[in-house]
Amino acid sequence: MTRAFEIAEVALLEERRPLTREEALAVAAVPLDALPDLIAIAHRVRLAWCGSEVQLESLVNAKSGGCPEDCAFCSQSARFATDADVYPLVSADEILAAAHATREAGASQFCIVVAVRGPSESLLKRVIEVTRRVIDETGLEVATSLGLLTKEQALRLAEAGVRRYNHNLETCSELFPRICTTHTYEDRIETARLAKDAGMELCCGGILGLGETVEQRVDFAFELAELEPCEAPINFLNPRPGTPLAATPPLSGREALQAVALMRLVLPGAWLRLAGGRELVLGELQSMGMYAGANALIVGNYLTTTGRDPADDLAMLESLGMPVAGGPGEGRYVLDRAGTHILPPLRDGERAPVDIRSPRSRPAS
Ligand code: SF4
C-alpha cells in the first residue's frame, strides 16, 4: 500500500487522531488508480469513529428563488436568469405536510431551508412557530437553513428547539471570493460560530466541483474541521442553466469518491452527508460513496433539483448492511467487539480501545 495511506491509517485507527494538512495532502496526491485502497481506509475510519449507522434527512425548500446574493452555483439567486421556482415562504401546513412525508420516508431529520441572505423578523417568527409544530406532531429532529444570523436570532432558534443549523462554507476561503461577492467567507464563519454558541449542532459543508483543485479541496476540509461541525453535507455541482457556472463540467465519479474519502479522513467523527448532485456525479457509484466514508444522505428532492426515490436509497443501504439511524445522534459512535457504543472521551495521548485496524497492522495471533 502507498506510504501516504499507511501513515493515514495508523494516525486515524491506531493513534486515533485526525490527519495533519501535510498528511492529507500526501493522500490527495496519490493517483486515482489507488482509489480502492483509499476507499477501504475511509470505510474503516468511518466504522471506527462513527459506526455503521446512516442518518437520513429530508429538506423542504420553504422559500425559493429571489435571493439577493450572487453565489455563482445557485439558481435561486435573483441576479441570474434561471428557471428555478420563485415563491415566498410556504404555509405552515405545507411545511408540516413535508415533515410528515419525511417521517414516512424513514428519515429522522427534517431541514427547513429558505433562500435568503438572512431571515427577516416575520420569516424568523414563522419558522420558529412551524418548528415547534413539526417537533410536536412528528418527533423529527428539526434543522433550519436561513442564511446569515445575528446572535439573537441564533439564540431564538435554539430556544425554539432547532437542533441543528445548516450554514455551509460552500468552498475553501481561497476560492470563495470568486464564487460569491455579496458576503464574505468570514460572514459565513461567524454565523457558523453563532449557531454553535447558541447551543445548536452545526451542519457545515459545501459544494464540490466549483473549479477547486484537489489541494483546495483538502484546505476546504480543514477549514470545515476547524469549526468542528457535527455534520458536513457534501454537494456536487450540478451545473444549472443561467448561472455563471452553467458550463463547468461536473466532477467525475472517481474524483467525487476521492473527495468524500478525503473529507472522512479530515473529519473522522462527523456525519458526512451526500447531498445534491450525487445522482448526477456518482450515478452507479452511489453505494461506493457510502463505502468511501459517507454516513448520511439527503433523501427525496433537493432545493432545485430532483432526487431519486427514497425507497431506492433504503434498498441501497439494506444491501450494504448499513442500518438507518432511528433517533438522535451525534455521529460519535465506535464499533468494537462489544458492538456499537458511544465514543468515550480520550485523555491526552490515550488511545481508544478499538480494534478495527487493517489486517496489515493487527498483531499476529
Ligand atoms: S446559495 Fe443561498 S445565499 Fe447564495 S444565492 Fe443561493 S440561496 Fe442565496
Model description:
Helix content is 39%, strand content 14%. It starts with a helix and ends in a 23-residue tail after the last strand. Helix 1 packs across helix 2 (21-28), helix 2 runs antiparallel to helix 9 (214-226) and helix 9 packs parallel to helix 10. It contains 13 helices and 11 strands. By secondary structure, the protein is of the alpha/beta class. Helix 9 links the parallel strand 6 and strand 7 (231-236). Iron/sulfur cluster (SF4) binds next to loops. The site of iron/sulfur cluster has 8 residues, from loops.
**Side-by-side strand order of the widest sheet:** 5-4-3-2-1-9-8-7-6
Label the CATH architecture. Answer: Alpha-Beta Barrel
Q: How many individual β-strands?
A: 11
Q: Determine and state the CATH class.
A: Alpha Beta
Radius of gyration: 20 Å
Identify the overall geometry.
Answer: globular
Q: Give the rounded overall mean pLDDT.
A: 88
What is the structural class?
A: alpha/beta
Beta percentage is 5-15%
> How much helicity do the residues have?
25-40%
Q: Which fold does the CATH topology refer to?
A: TIM Barrel
CATH superfamily: Aldolase class I
Features:
alpha/beta; TIM Barrel; disordered C terminus; 365 residues; two-stranded antiparallel sheet; nine-stranded parallel sheet; binds iron/sulfur cluster
Write the topology of this structure.
Layout: H1 3-14, H2 21-28, H3 35-50, E1 55-63, H4 92-104, E2 109-114, H5 121-138, E3 141-145, H6 151-160, E4 164-166, H7 176-179, H8 185-197, E5 201-203, E6 206-208, H9 214-226, E7 231-236, H10 253-266, E8 271-274, H11 278-282, H12 286-291, E9 296-298, H13 310-320, E10 333-336, E11 339-342
Parallel strand pairs: 1-2, 1-9, 2-3, 3-4, 4-5, 6-7, 7-8, 8-9
Antiparallel strand pairs: 10-11
The protein binds iron/sulfur cluster (SF4).
